Amino acid sequence: MSNKNNIEVEAKIPNMKVGLGEKIGYSLGDASANLVFQMMMIFQLKFYTDIFGLDGAIAGSVLLIARIVDAFVDPAVGILSDKTQTKWGKYRPWVLWSALPFAVFYVLAFYNPGIEDKGLVALYATISYILLMTMYSINNTPYSSLGGVMSSDIRERTSITSIRFVASTIAQFVVQGLTLPLVNKFGNGDEAHGWLCTIGLFACVGFVFLVIAFLSTKERITPPPAQESNVMADVKETFKSNPWKAMFVLTLFVFITLAVWGSAMSFYFQSNIDQAALYGFIEKCGLADIEGTRTGIGASILGAFNLIAHSQADAYSIGFSLFNMIGAIVQFLGVILLSEFLANRYGKKRVFVICLSLTAFFTACFYLPEPTDVTSIYILCVLKSLAYAPTVPLLWAMIGDVADHVEYVSGRRATGFCFSGVVFALKAGLGIGGAFAGIILSSFGYVGGAAVQSGSAIEGIRLVSSVIPAVLFAIGVVALFFYPITKEYNEKMQAELTRRRALNN
Length: 505
Fold this sequence. Notes:
Elements: H1 3-12, H2 20-50, H3 56-83, H4 92-97, H5 99-109, H6 118-149, H7 154-187, H8 191-216, H9 231-240, H10 242-272, H11 275-284, H12 297-304, H13 315-346, H14 348-364, H15 374-388, H16 391-410, H17 415-443, H18 455-464, H19 467-480, H20 487-504
Helix pairs in contact: 1-20, 2-6, 2-7, 2-8, 2-10, 2-17, 3-6, 3-17, 5-6, 5-8, 6-16, 6-17, 7-8, 7-13, 7-16, 10-13, 10-16, 10-17, 10-18, 10-19, 11-13, 13-14, 13-15, 14-15, 14-16, 14-19, 16-17, 16-20, 17-18
């Protein structure tokens, strides 16, 4: 190609730089999603067993039934968003359109209607959960796809996803750390009312975040001008993609694992850990005030969020909240300091394999501490969170690379459908993991709401909090060996796609 032609091509290359304000605005959309996701992952199963009074196996089945609906909803949303044509783009409008119903269905999923009949309770739980998961798809599939079309620049894409998951980690901190204290504060003895107020607060914040995400973002990558609308061709090319299949399996098992471990840890803290030892640890951390004499701004802030224990009865809610907050802070720092740096230096795939392997190891170690060895449990929390942190933004950046790979190989781009499959894997993992945890706990004899659990039930809690999720993480590691997009391959692919887009403009 002549120098003249080179200059002409370069002149047609669109600017793929994304400003910090746009990255932050986009990230708020995932903060909103995580106000929902983290709640479902950590507290949904326990809410069903302890507030709705459902058997663990039945509660798990509720989570699983929604996956049947997802199998139809998720690809449909991906196809619809790919075919959407508006002045705002393909994916941005869906973020706005779904914001309000998403908030409403979130509240309904955690609303206790006071039904006595357990069959009707299970039916209500199933319908409300399906509605919430359907709206999650309608919101999150286009939102995730939007991240894949904001820039084709490798470093910009990694930066976008890193900032996105800084925001999601903050949301994780809020949900995991403040939910139980806020439920106790708002409920004042009425748990159902406390849950309703807490979820209502999170839903309102989430709605505002989604509106901001819509207003602040821009789509820069569009399908090739000559590409004709052909759903079957898009489906065929996506399903043929080995990178897509690898990411589907990885996402499925990662989120099965997160749901299993996340659901189990609340039981682990309530029934496995010695509550006197846990209270002693809380006391050493300065979060106990038996006499009610603590004063100062620090005490006022902690008290406002009900994060001060006044007796051993508060050990579970404060201790579990502290555990989650420490994990979220460490993950937050890991995302900021490690994700982008490691990915740019060593490549996303290599970093993911090493970090997920370490995460599996530290997860398995939760089986080892004695019920009184609270310090070791918190140390494991730090190690596991630090190991897992770099992977958090990389998953979605890698899916964006997969959408590029499909275009690179086939000449067709179907970002929405590509992301919809992975969102389905995420939700399937969430449902399967929650159901799996519920079934295991039920098989070991766990009784919802019981003050004391049997030795068998506690053993089940220990296994589902450690060894079982570690094995599931390891399956995700195996899936990564079938993912072919290395750092070097990605750089070559992006250079070629940039050249093609410039020529087609």
